[in-house]
Amino acid sequence: MRANDTDTTDRDAAEPTLDDLADALLLEAEALADRSADLPDALTQYLHAIGRTPLLTQAQEVALMQAIVAGAEARATLEAGGRIAPPVRRRLRHADAAGEAARTEMISANLRLVVSIAKKYRDHGVPLLDLIQEGNIGLMRALAKFDADKGFKFSTYATWWIRQAVTRYLAEMSRVIRLPVHRGDDRRAYYGALNALRMALGREPGDAELIAFLNEPAERKGAAGNKPPKDGPTARWTPQKLDSVREAIRIACVDSLDRQIGAVDAPDSRLGAFIPAPTDTAHTAEAALMSAALRAAVATLPERERHLIALRYGLEDGQERTLAEVGEVFGVSRERVRQIEAVALRRLRHPARARLIRPRPDVA
Q: I need a labelling partner for 131 at 20 to 30 A (CA). Which of 56, 80, 285, 346 fits?
């Protein structure tokens, strides 16, 4: 093995990547959720944990961002290969490690910002810790795109990305009929324009006024510079697009199955009572399809997580195994099995994989 390969392998094994950090954040939130039955306030425990990291000044943010950029450049040089003198390689590896440390410090110092934003959406039917997880992902996206040379504080820039991650997750998880992500952006842009014009005009705006407002250049609506893109797609609005967005909103606004459609005191007066019960044959067919869909979703996981989930839930032989039993197979502790399982289940709940598990509409 070449020296370059050895250095790269050692570095990859010793130093956490951004994906490792994301998994660590997810694991921490999952662990808090698992213990929520025993802890009176899991969120308070989480806040105590992240509150130990001091907030950053703008000068500190600039210094950390410079270290992150230098680390990224050093890593690119190392990964490009080629002949590098040992002293230069050591300096590059040191810069790479310093960049990863700076990245971790930037994220850790802004976790409280994620909590403060996520708490504003806590009454939308989704657990707050789930919102915090999604906000943490938005925080990391913001860090990847931030440019400290623009002169803005990172928290100002990150707020938009955190809010976008949380609202998109809410739109995906809280709807019975799920809109595509770009439709969710269109919907928010439409309602934002509608509310702004109602306040400005004191009446309901016409279609022409809505379209003109929605197509107004972003730079005329706020300060330019290191500002995130406007919340919504950049495609121009037309009368046809306006009608299409309104139709998508109408379709998504389905009734609750608990809605009363008769007298309140009448028996079986809920909407759901009028849906025919599925036959045993349909149940059997749906169960078979769900089993196949679940296996297809699990098959998309990394090999280690796939094998662990298969053993844990008996997907291969029908025999479920305890954490201790799975730990013996993998040669790790029960706690490590629980951590890997938590990450795997989190991946399975991702919308891209969850679509594989959702019941097909033609099975009744």
A: 56
